[in-house]
């Protein structure tokens, strides 16, 4: 990991809501219902559920999640019209290692 990527991740995590999203996604089964179609969390949590839990507008959450995905914190998977997000544990591990 380079300093530019680490800085972008740091910026993402400096916002309380974005940090909470990362916490919620650590244990999605404790924080979200499974999506009615998939019934599991293998591909992550439906963006709609994240937006509802955060209590922010769709446009704000969309911006947050897009930035988190761009810096590598989240992985997005699409099923039909639904988008699902999960933590990118590989990037998180590299970030932690970089900080050490």
Automatic annotation (TrEMBL):
<dbReference type="InterPro" id="IPR051081">
    <property type="entry name" value="HTH_MetalResp_TranReg"/>
</dbReference>
<keyword id="KW-0805">Transcription regulation</keyword>
<dbReference type="InterPro" id="IPR001845">
    <property type="entry name" value="HTH_ArsR_DNA-bd_dom"/>
</dbReference>
<dbReference type="InterPro" id="IPR036388">
    <property type="entry name" value="WH-like_DNA-bd_sf"/>
</dbReference>
<dbReference type="InterPro" id="IPR011991">
    <property type="entry name" value="ArsR-like_HTH"/>
</dbReference>
<keyword id="KW-0238">DNA-binding</keyword>
<dbReference type="InterPro" id="IPR036390">
    <property type="entry name" value="WH_DNA-bd_sf"/>
</dbReference>
<keyword id="KW-0804">Transcription</keyword>
<feature type="domain" description="HTH arsR-type">
    <location>
        <begin position="1"/>
        <end position="100"/>
    </location>
</feature>
<protein>
    <submittedName>
        <fullName>Winged helix-turn-helix transcriptional regulator</fullName>
    </submittedName>
</protein>
